[in-house]
Amino acid sequence: MASWHNGEAEPERSSLVRMYALTGGRTTPRSALAMEALVSSATSAQLGTSYPREHRAISELCRQVRSVAEISALLSVPLGVARVLVADMEADGLVRVYQPQLEAGLPDRGLLERVLSGLRRL
Prior knowledge:
Elements: H1 16-22, E1 38-41, H2 53-61, E2 66-67, H3 68-75, H4 79-91, E3 95-98, H5 109-121
Antiparallel strand pairs: 1-2, 1-3
C-alpha cells in the first residue's frame, strides 16, 4: 500500500473502476433485463478461473434462483453492473434468465394489490 507524503496510509481505491473495466464501460445490458427477472445457474459445475470472479460469484449465487436485484445487493455492485454481467452470462449460456410476464407493459394487478395490502398493515 502506497503512503501519502505525510505518512498517512492511502485510502483503498474504489472497486467502481474495476466494475467499469469489467463491463467495458457499458451501462445497459445487451438485452432488456428487468431488475426483478429471476436468474438460475445453467451449469452444476463451478466456473473455472478463466472466468472473472464476478461471473463465478453470480454462478454460485444462482444455484438458488435469485432476482437481478438480489444479485446486485449480495455482491455489493451497482444494479446496472449486475444487469450487464447477468446479460453477458446469459449470452454465454452460463445462466438462465426468466423475465416477468407483464401484459402490455402493465404491472400485474394481483401483485399490486398484495403490495398495497402489505403496506397498509405496516
